[in-house]
Amino acid sequence: QADYFVKPCQIINGMSQLCALLTLLLAMTSSSSPSGYQTESLTQTAAEAAMEAELRKKGAVINVHVGVRPDGVRGLFASRDLEEGEVACWVPDSTILSEETVDSTLLGCIHEELSKGVSDAERGPYIRMLSLVLGYLLEKARGSSSKFGSYVAALPEYPQTINTWGSAEQNAAHAMKGGNAMEGFKVLAIRGASVVQKCASLWTKLKKTPPQIPEVQAAFFFVMTRMASLRMVPWVDLVN
Fold it and tell me: String of b and e for 205-228 (b: at least 16 CB within 10 Å)?
């Protein structure tokens, strides 16, 4: 359709809904095919083990472990039989990377950047998305001194998302979808890089180079693979 192009905020909200749907479908598939999915191999890394230990110290409830199903899907599995209504996994809000927990100086710069040039409907989702992307980049730069250090250290390498494809593959994907959604994210990446310049001292005082547009854009696509309801939730994000 000629009007297929959608704004990035619609894409962001749609991705969160899609992740929730996929989680439900995986759960349904797992429960309906017990013979295929009861057995899994353990794949917890040392970084994930350190993150789990820290989360437990902060009061998290973790009745799950990381594993890989025989069909190659990696995610969370119950570590024991759970009673009906029992919590499988819960982590404190303070451990979740979001607009509410991101560095206050960074958040102020995000609000300043988005005070103009966007509609009222766009501003909220854009603030939340930039909080995740730039918050992740800042906490990654902080390393072990970050309050999210164990979570960031446990995150995987960037997957091969569409931004890493060649031009021919990207053009084919855009043709199948009826539009180039990447352009909207490029605009957000530019705004994100502008935010970084406003508060570059957050990186320079760490003796780190503030991220430029390509790094911000790459982080956008990575965060899209991990977030749930515009938050990055340690451990629970493996459900996606």
Answer: eeebebbeeebbbbbbbbbbebbb
